[in-house]
Amino acid sequence: MQPHRIGLMVPSSNTVLEPDFYRNLPHGWTVHTARMYLEDVTVTAEQQMLDEHTLPAARQLATAHPHVVVFGCTSASALRGNLYEERLVEDIQQVVGVPVISVSRAVRQTLKNLHARNIVVITPYLEEINAKIRRSFEEDGMNVLRLLGMGIRENARIALVPGEMIVNLAHRAVHGLSPDALFVSCTNFPAMSILDALRRAFPFPVITSNQAALDMAIKTSAM
Fold first, then answer.
1. CATH number of the domain within which 49 lies
2. Given its phi and psi angles, is residue 137 left (phi above 0), alpha (psi -120 to 50 degrees) or beta?
3. What are phi and psi of 6, to 5 degrees?
4. In this predicted model, which residue has the larger pLDDT, 221 or 122?
5. How many CB atoms lie within 10 A of CB 36?
6. What would the mean pLDDT of 118-124 be, rounded to a whole number?
7. For residue range 10-32, what is the model confidence (pLDDT) as tens digits?
8. How far apart, in whole angstroms, are the C-alpha atoms of residue 133 and residue 87?
9. Cβ–Cβ under 8 Å, residues 111 and 104
10. Which of 14, 61, 120, 161 could, after both became Cys, cross-link 188 (CB 3.0–4.6 A)?
11. How do beta strands 206-208 and 100-102 pair?
């Protein structure tokens, strides 16, 4: 497999997505990042990020000539619904000139590939963001059996959540249910580093934002 450059568009306060990618890329592949200003994970702040900072970041990233670009914010890609997400991907792709992956869409496709229709979701988000995440899955015909969030507003704090706390939240969310899969949302949530532990804890697939995005980026770039 020839080395490839993966471009990441990340919220400026995200400190987890880049390390997750470069620790798990195939040998010789590289990651190149453009940042979109964001401090708080709220509807208002993410709308501003989408409207003011996304396409400028794409233009900057295009100068690195990546082979594929990842729009690296799960909640923002789901914020305005799945049709908007498709248009967002198209707009970014026109700027960068290479395939573009949205994290939210990568997650939904991964779940579809697993034939997962009834899912449980955990997030670090406020309820206003959780509602957007739920709607994204429901628009794609999935049933969210339960969605639990941690109510964290500041994106920098999300990156500091201990892995044990994520595992405990997952057990609370799944308790009494038999889902087809568990999804752990947010590219700044340090869940990929404990993904093996999560998968050992449950008898069904566990998907994280960063793992789904990375898998799709590698597959798309290598095509």
1. 3.40.50.12500
2. alpha
3. -105, 125
4. 122
5. 25
6. 98
7. 999 999 999 999 999 998 999 99
8. 18
9. no
10. 14
11. unpaired
